[in-house]
Amino acid sequence: MKTLFINIKELVQIREASVSYVAGKAMKLLPTIKNAYLLIDADRIFAFGPMHECPKESMLEVIDAKGKMILPAWCDSHTHIVYAGSREEEFKDRINGLSYEEIAANGGGILNSAKTLQTTSENDLYEQSKVRLEEVMALGTGAIEIKSGYGLSPESELKMLRVIKRFKKEYPIPIKATFLAAHALPKNFAGDTTAFLNDMLTKVLPVIKKENLATAIDVFCEKGYFSIADTKQVLKEAKDYGLIPKLHVNQFNAIGGVSLAVKYNARSVDHLEHITEDDIEALKNSKTIPVALPGCSYFLGIPFTPARKIINAGLPLALASDYNPGSAPSGNMNFIVSAACIKMKMTPEEAINAATINGAYAMDIQDEVGSITKGKKANLILTKPISSYVELPYAFGSNFIEQVFLNGKSISN
Length: 413
Ligand code: NIG
Ligand code: FE
Hints:
By secondary structure, the protein is α/β, with parallel strands linked by helices. The chain has two domains: about 1-70 and about 370-410, Urease, subunit C, domain 1, CATH 2.30.40; about 75-360, TIM Barrel, CATH 3.20.20.140. Helices cover about 35% and strands about 20% of the residues. It has 15 helices and 16 strands. It has helices at about 90-95, 100-105, 110-120, 120-140, 155-170, 195-210, 230-240, 255-265, 275-285, 295-300, 305-310, 335-345, 350-355, 355-360, 390-395, and strands at about 1-10, 30-40, 45-50, 60-65, 70, 75, 140-145, 175-180, 215-220, 245-250, 270, 290, 320, 380-385, 400-405, 410. The strands form two sheets. Strands 1, 2, 3, 4, 5, 14, 15 and 16 form an eight-stranded mixed sheet that branches. An eight-stranded parallel sheet has the order 6-7-8-9-10-11-12-13. The longest helix has 19 residues, at about 195-210. It is globular, with a radius of gyration of 21 Å. It binds N-(iminomethyl)-L-glutamic acid and fe (iii) ion.
């Protein structure tokens, strides 16, 4: 089955297959074709170009996109959408003056989410979480990473990972699963992080391998959570299982997680609300991509990741939602792109690059998604009529998405 889009006002983010990510000054360039066509064959992008070269094939579904634009669907490389319950009470506590760290110290935070998740059945967890997956797909997300990390016991971590695996079977969106082995220290292991990690790793890693439950490993490397030595312990053991590091680093403090991540060939380092010159140096000449999570900064009122410092140093940057119940209860990538422009001073071109091709790279699926490229999956956003792609981040509260296509099919049909 072939689908032909005609009269596309602007076809955004067209790339050669050889482009894996964009970095530094190149992030300011967003290649497009005005007045374009796009031909999809089954689930793939088959051809595209200016309208005057549009093929005249019959037996096609033809969609007239006059006044509308097409972009690759968003690639959200950092989420925690599998969770139980919510943390609205803590939201009120923060409004009334408590900090995120104070709430966590009082037994709230990640431990609060873990308590709820542990008493939620796998099926109930699936039902609660699929609402969020469907929500973000309708908002234009066409590839997603999902982490575990709210289990804090081997059984509950596996429960989360099995829910993610079920999503992979039942939804048309590419999903990458990450085992967040060290998110917070549960009370029953208070004072003995090493014992907690030993228990978690020895019980979960072999099952991940047997059931093919994850491709990446994550640690919340932060003061008061997991130290550099703890992180090293996790990365060392996960390496034997072929899991690639994608780490939470520098959210509140820069404690050396970035250079450790680079040493272990991490695919990404995420958060980076704080970043040192040494961190920047470590990232140069590495294959590790920095990922900013402006939804978390917005929600917690913490600093935004210094995008200009990172990009001006010649590095790439990806944007992700961090969708989770505690620090970023939104998976709306349209808002993320807008917040990156408004609060991090990224240009619309940089932000769109960061949320598409660079997000795909952060998940190691840049050969499949993240740009309009022949042979890639036809995971696309068709906008409503808009004046230019700048309107997307500019009108920050509006929904400009008319339809989302995954594997060449509209998800609203
Ligand atoms: O990425 N920083 C660590 N983990 C999550 C938030 C955890 C929570 O508060 O539930 C994050 O922001
Ligand atoms: Fe996170």
